[in-house]
Design goal:
By secondary structure, the chain is mainly alpha-helical. The protein has 2 domains: 32 residues, no CATH class; 58 residues, Chitosanase, subunit A, domain 1. It contains 5 helices and no strands. Helix 3 crosses helix 4 and helix 4 packs across helix 5. The longest helix has 26 residues.
């Protein structure tokens, strides 16, 4: 659903409207819960931050290199194909 939002609206901040009022109310309510926020942080760290940090350490880069790897991780997602984090990093190393 959010993928189609990117095609329909030039400004990403409007994408949440496609989710519906009930979903947004539930999300806002859950966002107040410490456990919910912690779960989001843990998932972010597991999927995006930890792989970027591990790769930056293997590559021996500093803070800018880490930031670039994190950006690739967030914007392209996990995976090994040419469009995903692992594939992009592997291609850059060649």
């Amino acid at each position: 659903m959010l993928g189609s939002c990117r095609l329909r609206t030039p400004i990403a901040r409007n994408c949440h409207r496609l989710l519906g009022a009930a979903y947004l109310r539930a999300w806002r309510g859950s966002a107040r819960l410490t456990a919910f926020r912690r779960a989001q942080t843990d998932e972010r760290d597991r999927v995006y931050w930890a792989p970027a940090l591990a790769q930056a350490r293997r590559d021996g880069v500093g803070p800018l290199g880490l930031a670039i790897r994190y950006d690739i991780s967030v914007n392209h997602g996990p995976g090994a194909d040419w469009q995903s984090f692992g594939g992009i990093v592997a291609a850059a190393a060649d």
